[in-house]
Design brief:
heterodimer, A: alpha/beta, Rossmann fold, 2 domains, B: alpha+beta, Sufe protein. Chain: A, 8 strands
Amino acid sequence: MTTTLAGGRAARRQTMRRIRPRRSPATVLLLVVWAGAVGVLWLWWHNTPSIADQNGKILNAGRITGLLAGYLMALVVLQMARVPALERRVGSDRVARWHAMSGRYTLCLVLAHIFLIMWGYALQAGKSLGDIVQQTIDSINQLPDMGKAAIGAGLFVLIGLTSIGPVRRRIPYDTWYHVHLLTYAAVFLTFWHQITTGNDFAVEPAAKTFWYVLYGSVTALVVWYRILVPIRLNMRHRMRVEAVIEETPGIVSVLIGGRKLHRMGAQAGQFFRWRFLAPGMRFSSHPYSLSAAPRPDMLRITVKAIGDHSARLRELTPGTRVWAEGPYGAMTAQRRSRGKVLLVAGGVGITPMRALFETLPGAAGDITLLYRANTTQDLALWDELAAIADDRGARLMYAVNSPDGERPDISVERLRQKLPDIEKHDVFMCGPAGFAQTVFEALRGAGVPARRIHHESFEM
Amino acid sequence: MRKSHPIRRVVLATAATVSGVVLLLSLKPASDPNGEAAAGAAPQQTAAAQESPQGGAAATGTGTVDGNVAQTQYGNVQVRLTVANGKITKADAVQAPKGGTSDQKTALSVPKLNQEAVAAQSAQIDSVSGATYTSTGYKQSLQSAIDKMKASAGSSQGSGSSQGSGGAAQAKTVTGSVAQTQYGAVQVRITVADGKITKAEAVQAPKGGTSDQKTALSVPKLNQEAVAAGSANIDSVSGATYTSNGYKESLQAALDQAGG
């Protein structure tokens, strides 16, 4: 059963395809985002003819931070809307890092905005900085939509707190995730005070329209890509667990059957977010890469039993319904330029590499896979890899610890020795963060340009 | 995959944001070169007040007085009055909302409002239905223009009284100190005759956003109350507590001045 997924005809056809590199749209998107930020600052500039005194400066600093926070808030939500251009072209990992970074920044702007505005109001009312708490309470009671905004801000703080590294590691993933979902409520609650009390929106109808369009289109994208598209996908393909196979101690493969699975457009190297409708598992979804090129009737994921969720995968019974969202991820054949390819896998990071190894276009001798594991027993899917290597004339190497437990040497010299033309390779890499960092540095040392090292990391 | 330096990133982002905001703030002039009223109402108001002595000529001869710019949801409104011998002979809107349906509304409402202003000789004119925002803005700007017109007339009167070592029946105008509120400055001017308040008006009141409505709602009431009570012990207008408190503060200051 384990080897049934290797050497399909569809996979072989993919290896013959022309190589068509596509650039990531990240640069263009970032330029648009910056232009939007400049536009928002211009709005403030345009509506503020002058600033009289210290008090006015504080209030206007509050308005600037508020406007920027309102603008970025929409983008922070957009980054998690699972828009295909972001997930598949820029890469889910990079977008997730953007999201984390801009989320933190936006929260800081929100806090600065609250502090500065309330300080400014306190001064304006002839009070001092010490009365800022009373001032805040008064403003919440008296200004329109401020009660809602206060609740929203409280939620933002809660979401921020649960996302701080040490806190997040201590609470279960599900708890963190469900707290994070409150972002939608918080954004909704804080939206209205921007429109009703925001000077720039009261004065400038065009700005108000722009704000409605910005938030409206983000809402539409979230509803479409996070709710409607997954519903359609799962109605169409009706996936169920077919079998669970123990590959090596601690690593299991889950075979998932369904209808017309090749129509999902999944490519080797991509992942889905999986939700297994079994007791105790239905409330959270987890990203697992496909460990074989998708077949019309079958998908396969291979998972190392490390967390609660992945350990429970072992107990899945055939016939369990599966809810999947995807495909996501940009570490596909499109990332490479023309030329040879080196795939580097560390441990269970073999999963996307295994799928790419089978399907990456290339002639015999163009593709090399380097597989790092602790022992030869831990080399999951090895038989399949060997069969693929035979079939398409690819090179397969492994690096394991020596019997006395010493780690293998992945250095510039060793890489050059194995692949003399290593600098002409595109490198795809998947593995634990420390391993990836070591390999990355060795590759750079061996002359591989950073733009040709393709790596997906979900470490924030 | 490049090494990330979280601390460096935090420091950079903070420094860039703070210096960006400080730069933007420092590039703004301290007072408005055009004298247009806008968000930070206080400075422009002072500028407007300084203009009024020059406008004094208008009260005696023929001249024009521009009201403050009133911001409405659809754009700015500014009224220009042509004054001859203390009477409004003509009212124009030098600024009015434009673009989209605003064009029609402006075309519909502004001529009517102009006529009404000349007929009423005050800002107590009816709103044009279907153009409520424009009407409210018009009335606000009109009120400020009338205030300026009267201020110049008042100042000439005031100087007259000091020379004339006047009788007890002499009416005098006293302006209270500026009271800062959360939404902007409030300043009250009262006319006192025989030790009684004959008239009270707000020369400054909060503007912009919802403040426009609140000011329109509360200030006329407060003016009436002040005249009726003859003191600063007046009721606050509910829903406009800040404005009311500022009003009372400035009113008290004006009364103190008048009494002393």
